[in-house]
Amino acid sequence: MAFYKDERLALFIDGAGLYTTARALNLEIDFRKLLSDFEDRGRLLRANYYTTIVESDEYSPIRPLVDWLAYNGFNVVKKAAREFTDREGRRRVRGNMNVELAIDMLSTAPHVDHIVLFAGDGDFRRAVEASKAAGARVTVISSIKGQPQTVADDLRREADTFIDLADMAKLIARPRRDGDENKASDDDDYD
Predict the structure, then answer these.
(1) Rounded-to-integer distance, Cα 30 and Cα 24, Å
(2) What is this structure's pTM?
(3) Does a structural domain hold residue 154?
(4) Fewer CB near the last or first residue (10 Å), C or N of the chain?
(5) What is the pLDDT of residue 184?
(6) How far is it, in rounded angstroms, from Cα 164 to Cα 161?
(7) CATH classification at residue 100
(8) Separation in Å, CA 157 to CA 79, 161, 163
(9) Considering its fold, how many domains does the chain have in total?
(10) Is 87 within a domain?
(11) Is residue 80 included in any domain, yes or no?
(12) Selection from 139, 140, 130 nearest residue 108 by Cα
């Protein structure tokens, strides 16, 4: 991983994508460790976390995380998820932050040296290409090791560097507690 202490860094985290990738790898992300790790790698200017929230629910499991992130160094970008009823009469929720993330990434690219994108959606390929053209190096973090693979091949190829989230587990994951479901053994090697 090529990071330089004097480079200006910006993190762009697709919250839903990171959650999906971490879940596929059986990891729980410690966002304090994640932020600290990138603060040590360079001059971290911004850490953006993108998510949708269901406004009509009294309690949403994402709200405590979003509140914690907002008070602990992350810039949280959120919008209301859209609710609808499908053909079978079931309540469904749909939300997507790809456009917001891509626009912010493109507007930031000329002002930083290195963008770190936590996402695997192939729709970000063009945003990565344009950010590179604006002068920023781009690292994509997702996974090819999880089941299912959570990064699109064209996004991985477009990035200057690809890092598998599994390879960062020791740096940014919460320690496993006894009794955790599907607990990995001490022999599991993520490096």
Answers:
(1) 16
(2) 0.86
(3) yes
(4) C
(5) 41
(6) 10
(7) 3.40.50.1010
(8) 30, 8, 12
(9) 1
(10) no
(11) no
(12) 130
Please give the full DSSP string across 120-149, using - where no structure is assigned: --GGGHHHHHHHHHTT-EEEEEE-SSSSS-
Contacts 24+ apart (CB under 8 A), 160-166: 160/132, 161/1, 161/2, 161/137, 163/1, 163/139, 165/18, 165/21, 165/22, 165/25, 165/27, 165/118, 165/141, 166/25, 166/27, 166/190
Amino acid at residue number 99: V
Would 1 be classed as within a structural domain?
Answer: no
Q: How far apart are CA 162 and CA 73, in angstroms?
A: 25
**Helix (H) / strand (E) containing 63:** helix 62-71
The whole domain housing 142 covers 8-50+96-172
Residue type, 122: G
In tens digits, the chain (191 residues) has pLDDT values of: 589 999 999 999 999 999 999 999 999 999 999 999 999 999 999 999 999 988 766 667 788 999 999 999 999 999 988 877 888 888 777 788 999 999 999 999 999 999 999 999 999 999 999 999 999 999 999 999 988 889 999 999 999 999 999 999 999 999 876 555 444 433 333 23
- What count of residues does the chain have? 191
- Contact, 156 vs 162, CB < 8 A? yes
CB 136 within 8 A of CB 115: yes
Query: What is the pLDDT at residue 186?
Result: 38
